[in-house]
Design goal:
Elements (H helix, E strand, L loop, with lengths): L6 E4 L3 E6 L31 E2 L8 E7 L2 H12 L4 E9 L6 E4 L3 E6 L2 E6 L8 E8 L3 E8 L6 H8 L15 H4 L5 E8 L8 E4 L4 H10 L8
Parallel strand pairs: 4-11
Antiparallel strand pairs: 1-2, 2-4, 3-4, 5-10, 5-11, 6-9, 7-8, 9-10, 11-12
Length: 228
Amino acid sequence: MDLSTRLLYRDAEVLIIDKPAGLAVHAGPKGGEHLGLYLDSLRLGLRRPPELAHRLDRETSGCLVLGRSRKALAALGSLFAKGLVDKTYWAVVVGRPREESGTIDYALKKREKKFGWRMEVDRTGLPSATQWRLLGSDGRLSWLECKPLTGRTHQIRAHCAAIGHPLVGDSIYGRGTGTLAGDRLMLHSRAIVLPLEAGKPPIAAEAPVPEHMRAALEGCDLGLPSPG
């Protein structure tokens, strides 16, 4: 896979790519295809390939940030750790929220299960907050813009399920509801903004709509103002 064809942003220190859904960012315990196998195509004249500045779930598509040097990776890591990165996700969920927008503020804790692990709402867990806004709905499904204010694993998926609107295709948090609505996870990292250097405009990128979500988003774009 030539990831250079999926570049959204490039400079001497940072790359942002449009990660395809279904591609893990790290090697799993059972091996298989993962992003690291293809990073060499993103050296783009440098001696070493870039490295991940953060991660996305295997089934999540869209904006993924890479650092091209140790200095850049340290600076990017600091931004993510301090919550200074503006991340915008698009999600298709089951049902329609009663409100037009809101903030989900539920602490999350990782739980080990017999057949794997998952994040669960638990007041003893880590503070977690997700802002959301309704962009469209056909009544059965809804198109949400989600902005995670914290960076917990599976945060958007767990939070949406916790308010009764699991993501379409979510086999962990939406089994029996989300999985009946679709067989692929509909979560897309739509845009990202990185205030990397003081006094300079932030780095920004936007990922195009993935084909596996296009029909659902178009179906939800009914009776509401344009998301802009």
